[in-house]
Amino acid sequence: MQIQQEHDRNYVDIIDSEGNIHSVPRSEYEEAHKEDIYIQQYFDHNTFITNVPNTATVEPKEVSYMEYDEATLELLARLCESESGVESYQCKVYVASVVLNRCLSEYHPDTIEEVIWERVGGTPQFSVTIEHNGTCMLESVEPSEDSFKAAQYVLDHGPQLPEDVTVFYSDTCNGDWVTTRETYTTLDHTIFAYYWRKE
């Protein structure tokens, strides 16, 4: 897919079911949203997809963004479910994107499994991996269909966030170090932020 690197914030690129790109005013799109299209927004040099439709059946591509097996897909789906189970499909896509962004970062491990179970100074990077009575939420949760779809979409298409957005936290979080990071966006009740940028 050809990516247009610069785009006015007042417009969105609509990619229809046949892969054709149409640039339309954001106001028009908001007035007449259709579920069978992908929306791509471009801010400066960063690209990301929003409003990824969860109504479509997600089929594995012949060549995925990265190689993965069923165990990796399930693990990522479990993280999506345990971190954003009550949130929207889009939020789950962003959660999975943070994991992949970390895999691609020089400051984190290279695999999804290692990133999810990573400890920094003994502190788990994802709270759902903290053990209670011999188990943790990540291992006990049952991934929903949306969580599987979100995980597979990101594995097949790559992160849907700028590459330096590598943290997320609840909007009810107060006083923690992570809240000092520059916010990229807030979706549902989850804040996605830049790891290395301060507010």
Question: Which labels suit this protein?
Answer:
199 residues, alpha+beta, 6 helices, disordered N terminus
Secondary structure topology:
Layout: E1 11-15, E2 21-25, H1 26-31, E3 38-43, E4 46-50, H2 70-84, H3 89-104, H4 112-116, E5 119-120, E6 123-124, H5 137-140, H6 145-157, E7 165-170, E8 181-187, E9 190-198
Antiparallel strand pairs: 1-2, 1-3, 3-4, 5-6, 7-9, 8-9
Helix pairs in contact: 2-3, 2-6, 3-6
Q: How widely separated are the two ends? A: 34 Å
Question: Measured on Cα atoms, how large is the radius of gyration?
Answer: 17 Å
Q: Report helical residue fraction.
A: 25-40%
How many strands? 9
Mean pLDDT: 77
Overall 3D shape: globular
In DSSP terms, counting alpha (H) and pi (I) runs of 4 or more, how many helices?
A: 6
**Share of residues in strands:** 15-25%
Order of SSEs, N→C? Answer: EEHEEHHHEEHHEEE
Specify the structural class.
alpha+beta
The stretches of 5 or more residues where confidence is low (pLDDT under 50) are 1-7, 33-58
The major sheet is characterized as: 4 strands, antiparallel
Strand order across the biggest sheet? 2-1-3-4
